[in-house]
What does this fold into?
Amino acid sequence: MSTYDVVIVGGGAAGLSAALVLSRARRKVLVVDSGAPRNAPAPHMHGFLSRDGMPPRELLAIGREEVEGYGGEVLDGVVTELVPDGTSGFWVLLADGRRISARRLLVTTGLHDELPDIPGLADRWARDVLHCPYCHGYEVRDQRLGVLGGSADSVRYAHIVRQWAKDVVFFAPAGFLTAQQRTEMLARAIGVVEGTVQQVVVQDDHLSGVEMDDGRTVPRDALFVPPRFRPNNDLLAGLGCELDAAGFAVRDSNGQTTVPGVFIAGNVANPRAQVITAAGEGSTSAAAINADLVEEDIRDAVRAFNLGY
Ligand SMILES: Cc1cc2nc3c(=O)[nH]c(=O)nc-3n(C[C@H](O)[C@H](O)[C@H](O)COP(=O)(O)OP(=O)(O)OC[C@H]3O[C@@H](n4cnc5c(N)ncnc54)[C@H](O)[C@@H]3O)c2cc1C
It folds into this structure.
């Protein structure tokens, strides 16, 4: 069985960007991807210089083609386990029973967004229930916007959303806001509606309002919801990578985790990474992995030289 220099788990922006750099560095690279990038529900991708407005799938299809053009391989599949092989390499186990050998691993499996359990919310996700004003704020500019309060950073988030519209309402659980926070919202003309959100109201396949537990419906065109980020890091935990308090694997500035030879990039490491950032992190890790492999190549060459091979 031939060994890949690098197996990349996850073929989103981070993984494909790394694969492009590594295949151009003439490394034998395999990307295994289960086909569920985080932004798949969104019709368009924004904020990626020169690709603004492109459907997310199109970026990845072009990326795959570019990787394959340099001899990189892309496989549709699910990686179920990563196992050290007893030397400096790893075994990559796939759901279909295949076992692949790799000198280094790059894990770019992304994250999943956990939404509050409010009726109707999940159905509108990426349409008019939104999480990232930098991704979608411009598309709903000057509309009637809402921000779901309750989480630690939701107040700051509401002030950021205010950048895109004058009519912003913050939905705050009773007793959530401090006096200072109320003053700041008042000063910036952010409305405050207190109580428990009962459900989102939809008319003609558009969000029309937010219904409160006292029966009021506050008309809104879009609702920003700060989700909870859950890294897809079971494979990393299984390898024994150290995780931080939020559950993200600890890494250095090159994406090297606490397990030598295992690197991470993109949303699995950094929940704030947008597509362009994830691609950049993939590129950074790729160069670091290549450098790490070169070090190993030197050691192997010297050993062989000294043995007279
Ligand atoms: C609704 C929505 C809209 C967004 N819009 C924008 C936008 O307009 N602009 C922007 O910059 N950002 C946007 N983002 C953020 C964007 O989705 C992320 O920045 C980007 O997807 C991160 O890339 P990634 O490669 O780290 O992860 P992902 O793109 O999530 O890719 C991870 C890949 O790993 C695969 N994978 C996971 N586990 C396994 C496994 N065990 N085996 C094999 N493969 C596996 C997945 O199937 C997936 O293809 C949006 C996010 C959401 C939720």
